[in-house]
Design goal:
It is built from three helices and six strands. Strands 1-2-3-6-5-4 form a six-stranded antiparallel sheet. It is an alpha+beta fold. Strand 2 and strand 3 form a beta hairpin.
Length: about 160
């Protein structure tokens, strides 16, 4: 079994592939945002897989990539529902000659609303972080929590 690439190596492979796509087939496509380039904004290990936030001129996506265990082959464009701490999300299977099998979930496509690469990367990173966090139950939703008068007022629940 070949050695698993480091996170930095995997990010470099993903970026190299999509830079070639950006310079080639996507170069003159109108849905590309000229203020964006290609960058893996964040790559983390989670529950035996790697999850990446990828910014490209035409989209911002979340990618799931194999970890230490190889994936069984799947048909291209087959959907898989993944359960994350924040909820269930559908990802679409694909394989790439540059970095191997992956599953993708689109966050923004096209990504025309971004004025700067930094903003796009921050948004992609925040989405990945949120994906891996369980939602926080608001204090006022917990039946056993005592809610202060000030908090009731702030949330429009004060007595008239």
């Amino acid at each position: 079994m070949p050695a698993l690439p480091t996170s930095a190596q995997l990010a470099a492979r993903i970026e190299a592939h999509y830079r070639a796509v950006a310079a080639g087939p996507m170069a003159d496509v109108p849905l590309c945002n000229p203020r964006l380039s290609v960058r893996v904004a964040r790559l983390v290990e989670w529950d035996g897989v790697r999850v990446a936030a990828l910014v490209m001129p035409w989209a911002i996506n979340l990618l799931i990539l194999p970890g230490s265990e190889p994936w069984q082959a799947a048909e291209s464009l087959a959907k898989t529902r993944w359960r994350f701490p924040s909820g269930d999300y559908d990802f679409v299977y694909g394989a790439d000659v540059g970095f191997g099998p992956y599953q993708v979930c689109s966050l923004f496509s096209p990504a025309l609303e971004f004025d700067a690469m930094e903003t796009a990367c921050d948004t992609a990173s925040a989405a990945l972080i949120a994906l891996l966090q369980a939602p926080v139950e608001p204090v006022e939703a917990r039946p056993d929590a005592e809610v202060s008068g000030r908090r009731r007022w702030l949330f429009g629940r004060h007595a008239a």
